[in-house]
Amino acid sequence: MEATAGLARMHREALAEALLRHGRSSHALVQILRDVQQSLGWLSRAILEELASALDMSLAHLQGVASFYRFLHLEPVGRYRVLFSDNITDRMLGSETLLAELCRRLGVASGEVRADGRVSVDRCSCTGMGDQGPALLVNHHHVITRLDAERVVQLAALIEADVPVAQWPSTWFEVADNVQRADVLLGAAMAPGAAIAAALARGDAGLVEEIKSSNLRGRGGAGFGTGLKWALCRQAPGEARWVVCNADEGEPGTFKDRVLLSRHAELLLEGMTVAALAVGARKGLVYLRGEYGYLRGPLLATLQRRRDQRLLGAAILGRPGFDFDVDIHVGAGAYVCGEESALIESLEGKRGVPRIRPPFPVERGYLGQPTTVNNVETLCAAAHIALRGAAWWAGIGTPKSTGTKIHSVSGDCARPGVYEYPFGTRIGRILEDCGARDTQAVQVGGPSGVCLSAFEFGRRIGFEDVPTAGAFMVFDRTRDMFEVARNFAHFFAHESCGFCTPCRVGTALVVRRLDKIAAGHGSRHDVDVLFELDKLMHATTHCGLGASACNPLRDTIAKFRPAYERHLTSLHFEPAFDLDAELSIARRLTGRDDAAAHLEDPS
Amino acid sequence: MSTDTAGASFTLDGQDVAIEPGDTVLQAARRAGRYIPHLCWHPEFEAHGSCRVCMVEVDGRPGAACTVRAAAGQEVHSDTPELNAQRKTLLQMLFVEGNHFCPSCEKSGNCLLQATAYEMNMEGPHFEEFYPDRPVDASHADILLDFNRCILCELCVRASRDVDAKNVFAIAGHGIGSRLIVNSASGKLADSTMTLADRAASICPVGVILPKRRGFAVPIGERRYDQHDVTGDCGQEAS
Q1: Is residue A149 part of a domain?
Q2: Which of the residues A14, A250, A505, B189 has an alpha carbon 20 to 30 A from that of A231?
């Protein structure tokens, strides 16, 4: 009884604290759920009931929101929650072997909680540490990079000894920036306030024109003109305008925003403040992906420092009426929230389902008000343009793709890390610089980008040739490109929001086909079905996630067909139904797994 | 929009369709008595855009007819072999995702999913069935919930929220694990505030939400889509 009462009191305190911290606002629901889970480990029905009544929402609504996010748990999880980053680059560095070894040492199956409740081990989508993998997350908050067999042995021992994470070797949590090539953005830091002062001198209308004529385009992948976006937001009728920084860097293989956030947070905030001046916003939000939660503390410190310097807050740089401040919202594991309207839904405390557009966020965004959502790198670039002018920026890169672009280089190369180049740089040049050898393929822009084979390495980075959101994953000739595509297919199925039919069912069907082929049951018919699914998803999905989910598939089938054919049986048709697999339940029931309990292998 | 002027029209498969201010392509087509296949759209509710069955081509670009604004001079194509083939595949996806056994379903003959599948000449599932495990909820005195047939159109969610002001339903999970849930302490419908008089009780286009003790009151053969195919009332919902 006493223990129960103590637990109940703990629950109440955690709830009250989280509600107070977020002003009992329903818009902060995801933040509240995160905080409560941080204190209590998981979100029980009892907790959700109390929270629902405190926020005057339905229990089902809360269950719906909580169950949407991969890092929120409605079932008990281990007190130590270990999540292995499951990008293909982590796998290439041996993450699967390390995961199996950790599970063996701890006596727990992947995806399950150990009987004593101490630990659970599972996989998660790319954690943005591709240049220093294999990586894992502990309790969704602590990042461990550069895993190896020795670290896994120690990790298992620390968990068995119940040593708090705070006391684990601090070197484990070091995240290197690995800046291999710096240009404008990653180069020398700008003096705080310099871009804001220059922007104020230009005047808000002049500033928008400057950004427009620089031809800066969004760095998040879509490439929409930043100046035009700001102009539309500025013109849209509304009571308040918002500047939102999209720091939900979820595209597997991308980590350049992580480096900007940790090294150049001042520059980012400078850019957000410049954007605020341009659109007339008084409030800004940074949507920080949950996997980068460890950056929240340093970012809050930077915000405070800037407030102290009058670079944030009321009357910025002494200009009466120029008020702007920034808040940080931490995500909870949902790639689709990188889509700007899904991101806004998530900011409002809802499931991160992309909205019907139009209206676009510039007209009706956060809380129904005009909102400009810009990528971290875009805002950093905008700060530089405000300071040094459009002509200077447009002089870098190509006419259609002005300025520089930062690439997150990982995979089979000697020097992984971030590389900043002017647009127009050859793929081959980047491969040479990063020390890639015997390269078979490069996945540019992440799974939703494009897969290039050796004959395309003369192509150039740019919106007019090879556009990119920043990932640059290198695969040498030892890699099986079919397995690369299969890893990406699993990623998209895992991250589909489930709203529209073609993405929800299509991504699941693609995974089934590829797993069938991987299991040695594939036929040419399966490849035909994959083509059919790709076509359908491209033409019918509600948002870009489903539309691009088959990109890696299409590219790899077209360019690396032998990789698929190696896995196919010679049959024209092979049924998806697998009689031996169907017998697994009977085997489990009878406790048998000997050869006689299996069908004879026909091969 | 300046294009929403009176007297304006667009063409749907070559024939003129008049536009009224604020119309989507689907709304204008429906008023003109023209059928564009759909499942999650319902005239009483805001567009949802999730089933994607109403995908058409507007000036050469794909768009959901329920969400794309109608504009003067648009050239819209809907009843083409390519688009209907696409619709058939989307319907097959919905069939394999759930557990749909028409012969034993009380909704058979009144079911929009079934009728639309007939209209699109769907003759089989094409893909392997997922056979998900979705227990029924028979707890309520008057209403049966058979989640096996849910197509996630959210019409019940919207009806209960926007008309009944009860919020009995919500969507939980993500991806292929997305599912309809009930708002009550036990998660069972009996413990919710739902009654048979609710709009949500009669809105389901498939056989998830069914009144109890009325099974087969109208014999098979005399039901809505036995009388005429789904195009006959422009896909007007059975409910």
Answers
A1: yes
A2: A250
Residues of A with Cβ-Cβ distance to B127 under 8 angstroms: 509, 529
Indicate the residue type of A475: F
A527 and A497 housed in the same domain: yes
Q: Are A60 and B181 in contact (CB under 8 A)?
A: yes
**Cβ within 8 Å, pair B181-A68:** no
pLDDT of residue A284: 98
- According to the model, what pLDDT value does residue A473 have? 98
Structural domain of residue A285, as residue ranges? Answer: 180-394
CATH no. for B86-227: 3.30.70.20
Mean of pLDDT values over A481-487: 95
CB contact under 8 A, B176 and A541: no
> Nearest Cβ partner of A59 from B55, B130, B183?
B183
B9-79 — its CATH code? 3.10.20.740
Assess whether A49 and A94 both reside in one domain. no
Q: Taking CB atoms and an 8 Å limit, are B86 and A539 in contact across chains?
A: yes
The answer to whether A409 and A416 have CB atoms below 8 angstroms apart is yes
Closest chain A C-alpha to B118 CA, distance in angstroms? 19
pLDDT at A194: 97
Q: Taking 80 as the threshold, does the pLDDT of residue A6 lie above it?
A: no
Per-residue pLDDT at A500 exceeds 70: yes
User: ipTM value of the model?
Assistant: 0.96
Mutation target to probe the A interface, by most A beta carbons within 10 A, among B26, B161, B174 is B174
Which residue of B52, B173, B174 is in closest CB contact with A500? B52
Which residues of chain A are at the B interface, by a Cβ-Cβ cutoff of 8 Å? Answer: 49, 58-61, 63-64, 67-68, 70, 334, 351, 356, 358, 493-502, 504-509, 512, 529, 532, 536, 539-542, 576-577
Mean pLDDT of A95-103: 98
Tokens matching residue A141: 């908050």
Q: Which secondary structure element, helix H or strand E, spans residue A200, and what is its range?
A: helix A194-202
| Integer Cα distance of A512 and A238 in angstroms | 47
The whole-model pTM stands at: 0.94
Q: How does DSSP classify residue B163?
A: I
Q: Token pair 């929001």 is at which residue?
A: A497
Q: Where are the domains of chain B?
A: 9-79, 86-227
Distance from the Cα of A357 to chain B's closest Cα (Å) equals: 8
Tell me which chain A residue has its CA closest to the CA of residue B154.
A499
Alpha carbon distance A190, A382 (integer Å): 12
Q: Which of A495, A496, A536 sits opposite B86 (nearest CB)?
A: A536
Summary count for chain B: helices (H), strands (E):
5, 9
Nearest to A278 by CA among A359, A360, A200, A381: A200
Assess if residue A533 is contained within a domain: yes
